[in-house]
């Protein structure tokens, strides 16, 4: 986040850098705390609360990942702004769903994550400047590939660890795309 903010030379770039940077920090923090406590087999209310925070942050992170692209790029008509509002509303809905139904409807949870992740990408066909999209899409493919392992957790060894590796690679690729093609540019 500090790297992006230090390079931001406009107000919009600063907002995009802060939203995206805070989302990355929040994602890694929430996930790390939840998994740390899971190592010690802590059950009950604390574990459920940490898992809920982890899941809600994932929804918000997805929306924040789109924010720099939808805020800083020009679109035909109002596609960018419409997609920006839509992804944040969907993320809030996803977080609320997690709050109410945590782990009760796992297939629906997965569909919500995928919808929040994939639907806003439709707006990119209306984006005037396409530079950086191949790197963004490659990161998205790592997320989608990782979902396979996320769903296989408990069925094959190290599936959850592979999922986290895919997430790390995706964030690395997409961070570099945001840095190189949006903030620095």
Automatic annotation (TrEMBL):
Domain of life: Eukaryota
Pfam family, one: HlyIII
Main localization, broad class: membrane
InterPro entries listed in its UniProt record: AdipoR/HlyIII-related
TM region positions: 17-40, 52-71, 83-101, 108-127, 133-150, 162-183
Subcellular location: Membrane
Membrane topology: Multi-pass membrane protein
Keywords from the UniProt entry: Membrane, Transmembrane, Transmembrane helix
GO cellular component, one term: membrane
Keyword Transmembrane helix belongs to the record: yes
Keyword Transmembrane helix in record: yes
Family from the record: Belongs to the ADIPOR family.
This protein's name: Monocyte to macrophage differentiation factor 2
Organism of origin: Schistosoma mansoni (Blood fluke)
Lineage: Eukaryota, Metazoa, Spiralia, Lophotrochozoa, Platyhelminthes
